[in-house]
Write a structure and sequence with these properties.
The protein has 400 residues and is mostly helical. The protein folds into two domains: 5-201, MFS general substrate transporter like domains (Growth Hormone, Chain: A), CATH 1.20.1250.20; 213-396, MFS general substrate transporter like domains (Growth Hormone, Chain: A), CATH 1.20.1250.20. The protein is built from 17 helices and two strands. The protein has helices spanning 23-44, 50-57, 61-64, 66-85, 91-111, 115-144, 149-156, 158-178, 180-201, 213-219, 223-243, 246-252, 258-285, 287-308, 312-338, 345-374, 377-396; strands spanning 5-8, 11-14. It has a two-stranded antiparallel ribbon with strand order 1-2.
């Protein structure tokens, strides 16, 4: 570690990017990656459990699907408040506590005798997820140094990509073997493992300042924060508007069967993992360039699918390219936002989570309207247009 530091909110963070991390630093960052895997696995698990869950609880599949909505909705609301409510608590204590909340929430969901207790358990998970991500950039910056935040977040978000690939399919398999409640209980086990890793590896992270809601809103006056939030809203709204309809596109335009579609989506997931790592290194080197590349790749992938996606080889290649861009996004976008608030990383984290949640919700609503109105190519065109707008926005930002 160098002697040159930046005095940032909540901690003194090393300003130099060390040539190599110590074993302790690697262990701490990996514990956060394990946490992201545990939380996101629990978040996406119901996608593979809706039918048996609905049958067991005596509800419709549509009603059962609201357990996902509950997680996201509670997350959006609590993201603004989480960093205010934790006050001056040691951040290690908070992170461990969020894992403990996830354990309890998943156990409650696994044991729930009715829909309302299941919903309560999922709401607790939503709080844990949103608070974890709101704190993540600040905690990673304290562990690895401000100039290596992108690399650190790249490793942490590996858990997201892996969970997105594994959770729905593994949930369905475990549900078939042992029942949906056992699948829910296993996500509690993942959270226990993450909590133990945090207890063993995270250093003490005392808070030197507390946030207020006024501090969070005051941050939105900064031009860099405004541009950073707008970049998240544009790129992620475009992604979620289009990515949900990649499978229908491959079915109706490329005319692929279920097996090849599964392979194409696997390629998307593997590319996303690579994008996590590449995006982190690129963000640390030049965040403006990293944002331009991320958005340009997504724009090209979406447009190319519309133009040439009828050809099987092209469809496979451009779906994979989209996955690479998506993997870069959750690393590059938060790092970009944090560069505008080195003195208020936790408050910026709250705004980051809210921006992502709004983008996910908006993308789902707008994408549904576009596909109903313009057909399977409509959402992918929208993805390309919003990604191009993000490129223009990135070019307006200062170099760095």
């Amino acid at each position: 570690m160098t002697d040159t530091t930046l005095q940032l909110e909540d901690a003194t963070i090393d300003a130099g990017a060390p040539a190599a991390w110590s074993a302790a630093t690697w262990f701490a960052v990996i514990s956060l990656a394990a946490t992201s895997f545990a939380l996101v696995s629990a978040e996406f698990l119901p996608a593979g459990l809706l039918t048996p869950m609905a049958r067991d609880l005596g509800i419709s599949e549509g009603t059962a699907g609201q357990v996902v909505t509950a997680t996201a909705s509670i997350g959006a609301v609590t993201a603004m408040l989480s960093n205010v409510l934790i006050g001056r608590l040691n951040r290690k204590t908070v992170m461990v506590g969020l894992c403990a909340l996830a354990v309890g929430s998943n156990i409650l969901a696994a044991l729930a005798p009715n829909f309302w207790l299941l919903l309560l358990g999922r709401a607790g998970l939503g709080i844990s997820i949103s608070a974890f991500w709101a704190l993540s950039v600040a905690v990673v910056a304290r562990l690895v140094g401000a100039n290596a935040t992108g690399r650190g977040m790249g490793i942490v978000t590996l858990g997201v990509s892996l969970a997105t690939i594994a959770a729905p399919s593994m949930g369905a398999l475990i549900s078939d073997w042992l029942g949906w409640r056992s699948a829910m209980a296993m996500t509690a086990g993942l959270a226990v493992v993450a909590m133990l890793l945090q207890l063993l590896s995270l250093p003490t992270l005392p808070a030197t300042a507390s946030n207020s809601l006024a501090d969070v809103f005051r941050l939105t006056r900064r031009r860099g924060i405004q541009l950073g939030m707008l970049a998240i809203l544009l790129l992620m709204t475009g992604h979620f508007a289009g990515s949900v309809y990649v499978r229908p596109f491959l079915e109706h335009v490329t005319l692929l069967a279920t097996g090849p579609i599964a392979l194409a989506l696997l390629g998307f997931g593997i590319a996303a993992v690579i994008g996590n790592v590449a995006g982190g290194r690129m963000a640390d080197a030049n965040i403006r360039f990293a944002l331009v590349v991320t958005a340009a790749l997504m724009a090209f992938a979406g447009l190319a699918l519309v133009l040439w996606g009828v050809h099987i080889g092209a469809a496979f290649g451009f779906v994979t390219l989209w996955g690479l861009a998506f993997g870069m996004g959750p690393v590059v976008l938060p790092t970009n936002l944090s560069r505008a608030a080195p003195d208020a990383l936790e408050a910026a984290g709250s705004l980051m989570v809210v921006s992502f949640q709004v983008a996910i919700t908006t993308g789902a609503v707008v994408g549904g309207y576009v596909v109903d109105t313009y057909g399977a190519t409509g959402p992918l065109t929208l993805t390309a247009v919003l990604a191009v707008a993000t490129v223009v926005l990135a070019l307006l930002q200062p170099r760095g």
